[in-house]
Write a structure and sequence with these properties.
The complex is a heterodimer. Chain A has a domain of about 55 residues. Chain A is built from three helices and no strands. Chain A is mainly α. Chain B starts with a helix and ends with a helix. Chain B is globular and about 70 Å long. Chain B contains 20 helices and two strands. Chain B is mostly helical. In chain B, helix 3 runs antiparallel to helix 4. Chain B has two domains: about 260 residues; about 220 residues, no CATH class. The longest helix of chain B has about 30 residues. In chain B, strands 1-2 form a two-stranded antiparallel sheet. The chains are: A mainly alpha, B mainly alpha. At the A-B interface, helix 3 of A face helix 2 of B.
């Protein structure tokens, strides 16, 4: 158990320092409440409309496609590092993996997921 | 290091997955109004895989560092899953055309789902179980919402997705705790590590896995999603979901509990006992008040999950567990076949806009369509467990195994709830034969073939059940 004590000390210290910063600000900072001060973006643009708005579903498709290729890269990097050790078998495995991804890509392409109008 | 012999242990699975991937691309070239071709190709793929699976009969092996296993159990379950897939395609062929749902993705998704179920049957590692669970579930979520923009179907898809994701969380947490207790996720490794591990952590982990898979097999109290999803999803999808997902979920439960947690038998048996009893009682009691055939079959599906759960209760008792798991497998076959037949009749009567699904729409069926009514009668009798049907034989083996395990009380509950279920199943029969009405049905060749096949198997196998039970018994031999 004792190897976790360091983590506990770290969590305690982090909480303490954060608390000190907040409490000091609360105690000594000037407080002038006005309508402008309590806006979400005090020095930015005025908020308008609802907080929840309808999004074009295209953003969702793009996000899905992003995950597709993001995961591809996540798998590619460690494979490239140990490429020599894995040898031919690793190469074949990777080709199978890319082929499966490619099926998804061609499908998305032909279905028009990449078109933005 | 992996070798190509690893691939031969999961050859049918590899072929099916590759077939599904290629079909996804081929489907892009098939014109919109001729998606029947995709259906035929998918059926061809399933048939080919079924042939390869049967060819694996009697072979033993494991692959990918003991992540997957090939044994009699996996061949038995895979064959059942592939037959379910074929029946699912046959039911869908005319139905999706008639309901305006014909899109090629239907069949590809079905193939992917079957692939996930087969992986579930072959999984020998908890991580693979989880992978298979996701692979079989995600296509089913999409299929449940396939009738979009119909609100009921979208609701079914979303509900199934949210509860499925929730239950997957339970499974992962359970796996994590089991790993924490034993230091491994391999089923064989867990058994070896149990003597030196924390029993409390292991029990909680096993219980969480049970909860997660309990959602998939629709056991009470994890059944709330079932009626809404089964009702909202297109009927052909529901038929496949009810059979396939249940078979896969139970096969995973059987394998995990029988091979990895036999030592938890004493503490888990009471929990399983309560789950099985509760599922049988609640499912059958709520089914009584249903007036919609899809909801009625949904509650019937819950109730049958309870009967199959009975097969688990004695899993820690080495004298009877083999025979009880075999009885569970047999009951799964009997339920899957009967289920497809009953849904076939439902699909024959269903019209666009969800009409033709009330029990009253079955009035007069006996006079106007005697063959269809006779088939429905057979399926209802089988679901009750009356002769001359597969349901009776299945229940007989099940109750015998449970009594041999020393759980007479559970068997009594099983018999009593079967009696209760006779009320609502026979009500369908009574409405068909004793009430006047003008039902209209749709006659489609593949649909009729499926219903006739299910009716024939239900009757004929019940007359000579010994070979099937012998196969189920030999399938579980190597499990322990």
């Amino acid at each position: 158990m004792h190897e976790y004590i360091a983590i506990a000390v770290l969590i305690g210290l982090a909480t303490l320092i954060a608390l000190i910063a907040i409490v000091l600000g609360e105690l000594f900072g000037p407080k002038k409440k006005s309508a402008v001060k309590s806006m979400p973006y005090e020095s930015g643009m005025d908020p308008y409309g609802e907080g929840t708005r309808r999004m074009p579903v295209h953003f969702y498709l793009i996000a899905v496609l992003f995950i597709l290729f993001d995961i591809e890269v996540v798998f590619f990097l460690p494979w490239a590092v140990v490429f020599r050790k894995l040898g031919l078998f690793g190469l074949i495995e990777m080709i199978i993996f890319i082929a499966i991804l490619l099926v998804g890509y061609v499908y998305a392409w032909k279905k028009g997921a990449l078109e933005w109008e | 290091m992996m070798s190509f012999s690893d691939f031969t242990t999961i050859l049918p699975l590899v072929v099916l997955t590759a077939w599904a991937c290629v079909l996804l691309l081929v489907d892009l070239l098939i014109p919109r109004n001729r998606k029947g071709i995709t259906a035929l190709f998918s059926a061809l793929g399933l048939a080919l895989t079924l042939g390869l699976t049967i060819a694996q009969l009697g072979r033993q092996g494991s692959g990918f560092n003991d992540m997957v296993v090939l044994d009699g159990f996996s061949v038995f379950v895979n064959a059942l899953l592939l037959v379910s897939g074929l029946l699912g395609v046959a039911l869908a062929y005319g139905y999706v055309k008639r309901m305006g749902l014909e899109r090629g993705e239907y069949y590809t998704l079905l193939l992917f789902s079957v692939a996930g179920m087969m992986l579930m049957a072959q999984a020998a590692d908890l991580i693979v179980v989880f992978l298979a669970l996701e692979l079989l579930s995600i296509p089913l979520y999409i299929l449940a919402a396939f009738a979009r923009p119909k609100v009921e179907s979208e609701e079914a898809g979303l509900k199934y997705f949210l509860l499925g994701a929730f239950s997957a969380g339970f499974v992962v947490y359970g796996i994590a705790l089991v790993y924490g207790a034993t230091g491994t996720t391999a089923l064989s490794g867990i058994v070896a590590a149990i003597p030196s591990s924390s029993t409390l952590m292991l029990t909680i982990g096993a219980a969480l896995i049970l909860v997660g898979l309990g959602f998939k097999i629709a056991a009470v109290p994890f059944h709330m999603w079932t009626p809404d999803v089964y009702q909202g999803a297109p009927s052909a999808v529901t038929a496949f979901m009810a059979a396939g997902a249940k078979v896969a979920g139970f096969s995973a439960l059987l394998r995990i509990f029988a091979t990895a947690f036999p030592s938890l038998g004493s503490s888990m048996s009471d929990v399983l006992w309560a789950l099985a009893a509760l599922t049988m009682i609640v499912g059958n009691l709520i089914a009584i008040s249903q007036s919609d055939i899809k909801r009625l079959l949904a509650y019937s599906s819950i109730a049958h999950a309870g009967y199959i759960l009975m097969a688990f209760v004695p899993f820690g008792n080495p004298d009877v567990r083999a025979v009880s798991v075999a009885a569970g497998l047999f009951y799964l076959v009997s339920y899957a076949i009967t289920n497809f037949g009953a849904w076939g009749v439902v699909i024959a009567l269903e019209k666009a806009e969800g009409r033709g699904l009330a029990l009253d729409d079955y009035a007069g069926l006996g006079r106007k369509y005697p063959a269809l009514a006779a088939a429905m009668t057979i399926f209802m009798l089988s679901l009750i467990g009356l002769p001359p049907t597969l349901g009776l034989v299945g229940k007989f083996y099940l109750f015998r195994a449970v009594i041999a395990g020393g759980y007479v009380g559970l068997a009594v509950i099983g018999v009593l709830t079967s009696l209760i279920s006779a009320y609502y199943y026979l009500r369908v029969v009574v409405i068909m034969y004793m009430r006047e009405g003008e039902p209209t049905t749709t006659s489609e060749p593949y649909l009729n073939m499926t219903t006739a096949f299910a009716a024939l198997v239900t009757v004929i196998v019940s007359l000579v059940p010994a070979p099937l039970f012998a196969w189920a018994s030999s399938a579980v031999l190597k499990l322990f």
